[in-house]
Amino acid sequence: MKMEKSKYNYQDKRAFVRKILIALFLLVPFIRINGHSFFRFDIPDLIFYFFGFTVPINNFFFILLVTLFLTFAFITMTLMFGRIWCGWICPQSVTMEVTSFVDKVKKGENSKKILYFFLLIIISFVIATNMVFYFVDPYQFFRKLFSEGYIHPVTFGFILTLAIIIFLDIYLVRFRFCATVCPYSMIQSVLYDDHTLAVYMIPETKDDCIKCNSCVRVCSTGIDIRQGLNSACINCAKCIDACEKVMGKKGKKSLFAYLYGPNNEKKFTRPTVLIGLVATSVFLVASIVAAVHLKPYKVEFLTNPKFYPRFTEGYAVNGFQLIIENYSSKEKKIEIFLSEKSKNIDVVIEPAKYFSAKPKEKKEENIFLKIPSEISEKNQLIDLEIGIKDEEGKIIFKKITFRKPFVKRSSVKK
Ligand code: SF4
Ligand code: SF4
């Protein structure tokens, strides 16, 4: 059924929101900050590029904080505004609205079926390819495609698989997904209470219904919301606009509206919402603080298992490995030094104190610490603290243990 403009005009507003979301979906993978993607989980390097931050996947703590923030934000939004996400923002419903011509084809309303199928295949591939760009650098993808005519087989396999799934979803599943298998639909039915925003029949005017069934015919999920709140309702407001069109001719308003519960009592100060807001705020602040302290590189200072401690030239020598993993697009320089806590021991660091790693490079360097033999002989183990300073002055400290060599000094060859 063709929707005409109504006083409420929710469908025009939804169409406007859709345009913004589609533009964001298509453009975000191409936006770059500091030489990196604005928002992308890079599968080849296992790095999450996030609003200018570089987060290696092994940074569990930060990823946990962001996950908790998003979880509580979603729960709180559902408590307050119900399935507003589903009807206005969800990629599934946005895709189904954009491809609504499929419904017409199925009902035999249009004879240009081959053209529509062709269009559907193109849309499926565009969505699938753009989804892959959230995991693979799009600039590299196009560079290789245009210069060498090459797409990595795994990337192509993902695009093809996703395109087939999206095609089947658009052609066969459509809004049934929202009403049946969508996990969010199951969760939200538990979160609803008497103050959650949803589409209701207005109690004062519901007896004015002339049973034209317009609201049922336009419903995205095929339900009859006149019977009462239904967990399959995605808050798309099509029934509000359809009824407005019918009742408008009688000089009346739509019999449906967005209401905060059946009695329309807006109450954001209820305990569940307050707890949700506090938890969301706490995890948001914690995520920002953690993001500010993130380093786009990782440094390890480990005992070298292949170098046995030994005496040589009046010193006891232990071998270590400095491992620098640079995730950023800039060269990373670091300096190693002995912390104040270990300065009372006479330690020599060889062969160098300054190291660098090129962009995306993982570098391993051998480092030797030398302590005068007479000090080492008196101590089986000496605890030391090594400082590692980057060019921005950020310092991390690593605790290491210097071991007394097993062999006697006189028996060791240089
Ligand atoms: S009942 Fe109304 S708001 Fe709910 S899904 Fe159907 S048309 Fe959309
Ligand atoms: S569109 Fe309005 S008047 Fe028509 S059946 Fe639905 S509620 Fe009743």
Give a verbal description of the structure.
- By secondary structure, the chain is of the alpha+beta class.
- Among the domains are: 10-30 and 82-196, no CATH class; 297-411, Immunoglobulins (Immunoglobulin-like, Sandwich).
- The chain has 14 helices and 16 strands.
- Strands 8, 9, 10, 12 and 14 form a 5-stranded antiparallel β-sheet that branches. Strands 13-11-15-16 form a 4-stranded antiparallel β-sheet, with no helix packed on it.
- Strand 9 (310-312) and strand 10 (315-326) form a beta hairpin.
- Helix 2 (60-81) packs antiparallel against helix 13 and helix 6 (113-132) packs across helix 8.
Which keywords apply here?
414 residues; disordered N terminus; single chain; binds iron/sulfur cluster
What are the segments in which pLDDT stays under 50 over at least 5 consecutive residues?
A: 1-5, 409-414
Bound small molecules, which ones?
iron/sulfur cluster
If you average the pLDDT, what whole number results?
Answer: 89
Structural Rg? 31 Å
Proportion of residues in helical segments? 40-55%
Largest sheet: 5 strands, antiparallel
Oligomer: single chain
Order of helices and strands: HEEEEEHHHHHHHHHEHHEHEEEEEEEHEE
How many beta-strand elements?
16
| Number of helical segments with 4 or more residues | 14
- Head-to-tail CA distance between termini: 91 Å
Strand content: 15-25%
* Shape, per Cα inertia axes: elongated
Structural class: alpha+beta
